[in-house]
Design brief:
Blueprint: H1 3-18, E1 25-37, E2 42-47, E3 54-55, E4 60-64, H2 67-85, H3 90-117, H4 122-173, E5 175-177, E6 182-187, E7 194-195, E8 200-217, E9 229-237, E10 240-251, E11 256-257, E12 271-280, E13 290-294
Antiparallel strand pairs: 1-8, 1-13, 2-4, 2-7, 3-6, 4-5, 6-8, 8-12, 9-10, 9-13, 10-12, 11-12
Helix pairs in contact: 2-4, 3-4
Length: 295
């Protein structure tokens, strides 16, 4: 009798009956996904990306028609130039009144000297003083009116500047850029389509830095903590697996009922805690793929 063969069969049966598992929890792989939407309305003049493309943060991938915005900017800047041209030349407009006031003060001083010498009646000095007061009031009124007009035009120019800045901001938003580095997961529009603010354009995901969302029982909590190094296995089916180094980055603060598609170390557990385990991938792990973790 072949005792070695019998011993091998017995060992296999013992392992199968023991219920030992190669993992402590299972879950699916996820990635940080960002959906990029249009911020302006218009026709997509360019849109140069395809699903599967790897792009860096800040890369311009499309352009919305900017014609109307440029026309509005030109119109607003022209309005500002009109306001500038309407500003009164204060010194020129009050020059005549200033000259009359200076002459009236000279006359006032001359009559003051004549009255002091007894060569002229005091009424003439009173009339000269009244004339100085009248001209001073006229000058003050002119200066006030001109200043009010100048201030109003300045405020209109400031408003035009604000409008131009707003339009330039809208113009900048017509340039579609990727907010993050990653891989294009989905593309929702094509070049030539008319888009409106809020319309999704494409979805990008960081598939270089992914994480496994797994579920553990309360009994396992004492053995798991954030920052802990663990082993993660990507399951390709048919017994094919690939191992990655993982780090526990998050543990849920509250329990939840076991998802139907998830197996835990204790499959009878009703309440489990979600954990996230970060890994750096090599391009083989895909979103939604089944994975296992060993603590």
């Amino acid at each position: 009798m072949n005792y070695k063969l019998l011993f091998g069969i017995a060992a296999v049966l013992t392992a199968c009956n023991s219920g030992d598992k190669e993992y402590d929890a299972t879950g699916t792989f996820e990635a940080t996904e960002t959906t990029v939407a249009a911020e302006q309305a218009g026709t997509l003049l360019t849109f140069s990306l395809e699903e599967g493309d790897n792009i860096e943060a800040g890369t311009e991938v499309g352009l919305i028609d900017t014609t109307q915005l440029w026309l509005k900017i030109s119109q607003t800047e022209a309005s500002k130039a009109v306001y500038q041209s309407q500003k009164p030349d204060q010194e020129k407009q009050i020059a005549a009144t200033r000259q009359q006031l200076a002459k009236a003060r000279t006359e006032q001083q001359r009559y003051k000297e004549l009255v002091a010498d007894g060569a002229a009646p005091s009424k003439m000095l009173d009339d000269a003083s009244n004339q100085v007061q009248v001209l001073q009031r006229q000058l003050d009124a002119q200066v006030s009116a001109l200043q009010t007009s100048t201030n109003a035009l300045s405020r209109q120019m400031d408003a035009a500047d604000v409008q131009v800045r707003q339009l330039r901001d809208q113009l900048w938003k017509c340039h579609i850029k990727s907010p993050a580095s990653g891989t294009v997961l989905e593309k929702y529009v094509e070049r030539g389509e008319y888009v409106t603010p809020g319309k999704p354009l494409f979805k990008i995901g960081d598939v270089r830095h992914m994480y496994l969302r797994a579920y553990i029982t309360s009994a396992q909590l004492k053995n798991v903590k954030t920052g802990q190094k663990v082993k993660v296995f990507a399951d390709y089916g048919g017994g094919q697996k690939k191992e990655y180094a993982g780090t526990v980055t998050w543990i849920s603060s509250r329990s939840e009922f076991t998802p139907k598609t998830i197996l835990t170390d204790d499959e009878r557990a009703d309440l489990v805690y979600a954990v996230k385990i970060a890994i750096e991938t090599d391009g083989y792990v895909k979103i939604g793929m089944y994975g296992e973790v060993r603590f």
